[in-house]
Amino acid sequence: MSVALATQLREGTRKSHTMAENTGFVSCFLKGVVDKTSYRTLVADLYFVYSAMEEEIGRLRDHPVVGPIAFSQLNRREALETDLSYYFGSGWQNQLQPTPSAATYVARIREVAASAPELLVGHHYTRYLGDLSGGQILKTIAQKAMNLQGDSGLAFYEFAAIDDEKAFKVNYRATLDQLPIDQATADRIVEEANEAFRLNMEMFKELEGNLVAAIGKVLFGFLTRRQRSGSTEQPVAA
What we know:
The chain is mainly α.
């Protein structure tokens, strides 16, 4: 029995999607306020998340529900490795560890893969379709905000193996609708997709502290310069 899973996922996660966009970190990002230190922490966290996701999806290629959505064209691990090399240098592997929120996210992916693999579809949809849909817009914002040259540090947003993103998304949604699941399973997948959004929001909230600190330093420096400048100004004659 097949169900309209693509529509149910879109409608069932609409509120979570809006909440994620309204987190402080994402809101600032969309407005072009991007701190490179916070951003590279995000890239590192995503590396751990996608590594777990792609390892588990790869292991479950023969699973009747997971296998059909295991599109290798979507894989992000290698792209993230390229970006990490740019932001952290050649020895990046020895410098990274997931933030607490990312570690929790990874643990959930591992848990689901072991106990209820079909729920990975919710995680897969939440991350990959979102990346594919908004990737170019986010790439442009990050590029301008951090003054990056060319595509350096932005490999994450490039899907070189996908020639036509619109056609790919149509096929992806059609694949979701053809998965051999019943309505009860569809409900659980939508619920897990909302959990994936929550886990993403926890990562964003953790990054907000770094971003606020960075903005605070810039503001403090600006005010300090103004005070120093003001102390040398001559009074204006009456």
